[in-house]
Amino acid sequence: MACTTILVGKNASYDGSTMIARNDDSGSGHFTAKKFVVVKPEELPAVYQSVISHVQIPLPGAGQAMRMTAMRNAVAGKGIWAASGVNAANVGMTATETITSNPRVLGADPLVVYQPAKGERPEVPGGIGEEDIVCLVLPYIRSAREGVVRLGELLRTYGTYEMNGIAFQDVNEIWWLETIGGHHWIARRVPDDSYVVMPNQLGIDSFDFADACGAQENYMCSDDLKAFVDKHHLDLSLDGSFNPRDAFGSHDDADHVYNTPRAWFMLRHLNPNTWVWEGPDADYTPHSDDLPWCMVPERKITPEDVKYLLSSHYQGTPYDPYAAYGDPKSKGAYRTIGINRNSFMALTQMRPDLPEEFRTVEWIAYASNAFNTMVPFYANVDTTPAYLACTTGEVSTESFYWVSRMIAAMADAAYGKSIFHVERYEEGVLSATRALLNAYDEKQAQEADPARRAALRTEANEAIARELKARAADTLNKVLFELSCNMKNAYSRSDA
């Protein structure tokens, strides 16, 4: 899946939270309807069965699984695709960011691809992939580090049929893991004072093998990764400074249209004065293959900042497809971040100054981020509001997913007249739901009974969903009107 990821270390965020966020994008030619649900331990099978690869994996025994939230596919048939969530131990995970590789890696450690039965040859199961990873890992880990270790063991044992990046988060740490070929992997801890942007490329640009094979303070990897690199001559450095992006990733011409411009825009927005981003003397351009994996921002980062970036269509640059200025040849030159094929955005925020029970908030947005709004919900709950959870394959105004998709399609078609409605919608939802979140944080802080605090979280989520539904319906009405006024058979003279 094409996606965009942002990771924010606790000292880079506005309130000391760790934050991980990802756009989940449908593949070209279709949309993937999503729903925000709770998965309970008793719903997890003893043996996991992958739909795509047919691999079967025994899961840890009874009593080891935890409740988790998930952004699963709304339409059955292709697997669960849990995508993003938080478990009962306040560990967050988002999976996956599809990343790139090169033939040297894939020739040395081929992907583990499903082979159907043919003639007398029996089927050969494939490895694990995006369909499977959250369900296989998140219910069973109690820290971000544990997530890296568990996924690393699964990759060693079963392999994977695709290259992916995966983020793990707890209140103190964020780890980013990238798969290398069929069975290998690397992981790096996001520095507390930094943020990371990931645009469908292998991203880690430096790696300390000594730490990874020793204390593992900031790096981890497959046990045999150094030997693998040496055997297959994957280190391309001239000075001995190992760069995983050079060794394991790609620098194709297609990257300069599809991938690197997204990272360039996000880094440019959060560090506008750190480097020169435009012009003949630019330090970095949309075509730069050496954009930093992580940077210290020029100011602290908020959830609203993350949403803006994951909604981007290169505003303020010649590449904005909606711009009313500039060279028409530049508009739409690069793949945008907020794209029509966005399925959802999930931002997981772990607030260190609040009790564990209501520490974690999941900010959810559906459909094209350029025309939607994100909404905060408590993660430590047993159920989620129907407006977000009951998505089906049928278009319905009772579904936040489908309302969001309708608003986006209509606003895009009448952009000039509709965009201010969308802007007011987003600001109104964020303001109103933040107020509700603040109020319910205070109510829980004053409530001594754990059962009552749990009930308050569910009550809060329902109140937020009601506020959201009313504002979304109002916005849908407004953009429908604007688009209707642009119909080809429009006529200005009234009947009277």
Can you describe this structure?
The chain is α+β, with helices and mostly antiparallel strands. The chain folds into 2 domains: 3-350; 389-496, no CATH class. The protein contains 13 helices and 17 strands. The strands form 4 sheets. Strands 14-12-1-2-15-16-17 form a 7-stranded antiparallel beta sheet. Strands 7-8-9-10-11-13 form a 6-stranded antiparallel beta sheet. A hairpin with a 6-residue loop joins strand 4 and strand 5. Helix 12 (415-446) packs antiparallel against helix 13 (450-485). The longest helix is centred in the C-terminal third of the chain and has 36 residues, at 450-485. It is globular and about 85 Å long. The mean pLDDT is 96.
Strand neighbour order, sheet with most strands: 14-12-1-2-15-16-17
Radius of gyration: 23 Å
Strand elements, count: 17
In helices, the fraction of residues equals 25-40%
Tally of structural domains: 2
The residue-averaged pLDDT reads: 96
Number of alpha- plus pi-helical segments: 13
> How much of the sequence is in beta strands?
15-25%
Structural class: alpha+beta
The biggest sheet amounts to: 7 strands, antiparallel
Separation of the first and last Cα atoms: 55 Å
Shape: globular
Reading the helices and strands in chain order gives EEEEEEEEHHHEEEEHEHHHHEHEEEHHHH
The stretches of 5 or more residues where confidence is low (pLDDT under 50) are none
